[in-house]
């Protein structure tokens, strides 16, 4: 055996053992003798697992040499993996699409290339689902790839396509069928049927992603535990790194914020340095954690970072949703409405799982901004989606939206029952932060109904729950202690607060500074107050002031 043949054989054996550094050394030895495509391909795979973007150049060299040798099947295989390396390291989606198109062209109508062609088609489906946000368009591509790999007995690729198909079904709202597929594919990895590390890692990431979309914290936790056991058994630390940002999202929902923060800081720090395009998901989740902690300036700084390359494309639309949550936390209800609506425009109408989060934010923002009718309509849309998805957390989200809308419109009994349902459902889902938010709103509804003792009890429990996980009380939740009884004109707690300041002689600018709200939000509240009081024209402020004095608001 020649020296380069022997080095390539050692490199392949090292790859099989997941000894990435040893593999890279072996393939480098082979290339020191002369250039050969299989050595470049092996070097690329090892470098990729070692978070070295030199993998892209090695794949490109392998592609060129395979083409020169007339081996179009191998060239197409390398083109597909080049596409994913570019995706992971640089986030250049046009370049990714170009490599996938090349892989498909080289294998079109060649029966001997069916497996490689299916890989390229499946990766096209991956891009269509996860980057173009078009799950319905992705399904035929994914199903085609799965059928071919099943017929060829290629378990790793088949299970990867099964998991991807499951993720598409979950995104479209067929949660039961999608989770069945994802559970099966993940079980195949756990059982050791998926030999290829890249496919095993991808499958676990798909199932966690799907669980996060429908907030199925319990299922996500079970598979995260299975993944951790798999990584320990195989010694595969790289796989754990790839899924850690998704896992951190699960930890956030579970209320394990210290662990989530540690995981996010470690993973995003490493990815910023090695795979910056993949760091976007972690940065979004870290910003969300900072917002929940009340560290709003730090959250805003992270969102500014996400506006730059190479994060911008990979971070959307989650970053827009996060900016909306941050705007609401700052009291900018108009900005929150704008961001929630923008987020929803980024998604297809049939992306029910991802639309749910945007609809909840929109309903809460409308309610906090004094637009109860809009909040009610949005909550009804979310309710229909929640019934289809059927998970406890999404049903709780719909109840929360309904409760917020009802509280804003003065329907206090409806608000109470909806928010009690939200608390119970979030508790069942294992989502303590969301349960605390629902409980704080419930306290406001009880206080507005004159049930001060129960309101104080619920508020105390909510405050304790937030403190236990390091959470801050969002400013958009009315203060239960200060919440009024039913207002004759139907003014909300925030509107009565602003009316009192108007009657005290403060301008809109003064009120915005006093309450730490945007001027647009204050203007919207003032407009709603005037409308409810039937006050218009140049005498509107005088009419409002008289009402405030009449009802002892000042």
Q: List the total number of helices.
A: 29
- Helix and strand composition category: mainly alpha
Major sheet summary line: none
Q: Assembly type of the shown chains? A: single chain
> What gross morphology would you assign?
elongated
Our estimate of the beta-strand percent is under 5%
Distance between the termini: 94 Å
**What is the helical fraction, as a range of percent?**
over 70%
Mean pLDDT: 90
CA gyration radius, whole angstroms:
27 Å
Give the beta-strand count. Answer: 0
Secondary-structure element series: HHHHHHHHHHHHHHHHHHHHHHHHHHHHH
Low-confidence stretches: none
Q: What secondary-structure arrangement, pairings included, does this model have?
A:
Blueprint: H1 3-16, H2 20-33, H3 37-49, H4 54-68, H5 72-89, H6 93-107, H7 114-130, H8 135-151, H9 155-172, H10 175-190, H11 197-213, H12 217-234, H13 237-254, H14 257-274, H15 280-292, H16 296-306, H17 311-315, H18 318-329, H19 333-346, H20 352-368, H21 372-389, H22 392-409, H23 412-429, H24 432-448, H25 452-469, H26 493-503, H27 508-515, H28 519-533, H29 540-550
Helix pairs in contact: 1-2, 1-3, 2-3, 3-4, 4-5, 5-6, 5-7, 6-7, 7-8, 7-9, 8-9, 9-10, 9-11, 10-11, 11-12, 11-13, 12-13, 13-14, 13-15, 14-15, 15-16, 15-18, 16-18, 18-19, 18-20, 19-20, 20-21, 20-22, 21-22, 22-23, 22-24, 23-24, 24-25, 26-28, 26-29, 27-28
């Amino acid at each position: 055996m020649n020296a380069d043949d022997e080095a390539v054989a050692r490199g392949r054996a090292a790859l099989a053992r997941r000894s990435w550094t040893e593999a890279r050394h072996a393939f480098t030895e082979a290339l020191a003798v002369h250039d050969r495509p299989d050595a470049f391909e092996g070097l690329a795979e090892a470098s990729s697992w070692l978070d070295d973007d030199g993998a892209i150049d090695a794949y490109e060299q392998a592609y060129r040499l395979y083409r020169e040798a007339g081996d179009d099947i191998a060239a197409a295989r390398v083109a597909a993996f080049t596409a994913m390396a570019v995706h992971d390291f640089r986030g250049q989606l046009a370049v990714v699409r170009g490599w996938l198109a090349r892989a498909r062209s080289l294998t079109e109508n060649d029966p001997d290339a069916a497996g490689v062609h299916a890989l390229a088609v499946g990766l096209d489906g991956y891009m269509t689902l996860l980057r173009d946000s078009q799950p319905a368009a992705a399904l035929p591509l994914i199903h085609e790839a799965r059928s071919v790999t099943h017929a060829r007995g290629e378990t790793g690729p088949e299970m990867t396509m099964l998991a991807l198909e499951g993720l598409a079904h979950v995104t479209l709202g067929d949660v039961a069928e999608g989770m069945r597929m994802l559970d099966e594919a993940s079980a195949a990895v756990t059982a050791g049927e998926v030999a290829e590390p890249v496919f095993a890692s991808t499958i676990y990431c798909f199932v966690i992603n799907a669980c996060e979309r429908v907030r199925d914290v319990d299922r996500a936790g079970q598979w995260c535990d299975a993944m951790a056991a798999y990584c320990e058994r195989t010694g595969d630390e790289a796989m754990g790194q790839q899924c850690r940002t998704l896992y951190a999202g699960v930890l956030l929902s579970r209320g394990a914020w210290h662990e989530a923060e540690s995981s996010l800081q470690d993973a995003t720090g490493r990815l910023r340095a090695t795979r910056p395009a993949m760091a976007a998901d972690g940065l979004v989740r870290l910003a969300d954690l900072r917002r929940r902690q009340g560290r709003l300036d730090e959250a805003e700084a992270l969102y500014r970072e996400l506006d730059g390359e190479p994060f911008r494309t990979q971070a959307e639309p989650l970053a827009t949703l996060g900016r909306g949550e941050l705007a609401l936390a700052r009291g900018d209800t108009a900005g929150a409405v704008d961001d929630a609506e923008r987020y929803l425009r980024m998604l297809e109408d049939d992306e029910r799982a991802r639309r749910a989060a945007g609809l909840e934010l929109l309903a809460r923002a409308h309610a906090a901004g004094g637009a109860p009718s809009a909040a009610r309509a949005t909550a009804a849309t979310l309710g229909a989606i929640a019934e289809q998805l059927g998970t406890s957390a999404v049903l709780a989200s719909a109840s929360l939206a309904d409760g917020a809308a009802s509280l804003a419109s003065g329907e206090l009994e409806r608000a109470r029952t909806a928010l009690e349902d939200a608390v119970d459902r979030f508790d069942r889902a294992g989502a303590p932060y969301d349960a605390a938010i629902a409980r704080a709103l419930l306290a406001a509804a009880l206080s507005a109904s004159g049930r001060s003792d129960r309101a104080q009890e619920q508020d105390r429990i909510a405050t304790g729950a937030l403190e236990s996980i390091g959470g801050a009380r969002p400013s958009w939740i009315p203060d239960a202690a200060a919440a009024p009884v039913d207002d004759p004109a139907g003014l909300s707690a925030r509107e009565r607060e602003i009316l009192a300041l108007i009657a005290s002689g403060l301008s809109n600018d003064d009120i915005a500074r006093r309450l730490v709200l945007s001027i647009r939000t204050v203007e919207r509240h003032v407009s709603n107050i005037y409308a409810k009081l039937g006050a218009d024209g140049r005498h509107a402020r005088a009419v409002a002031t008289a009402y405030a004095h009449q009802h002892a608001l000042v």
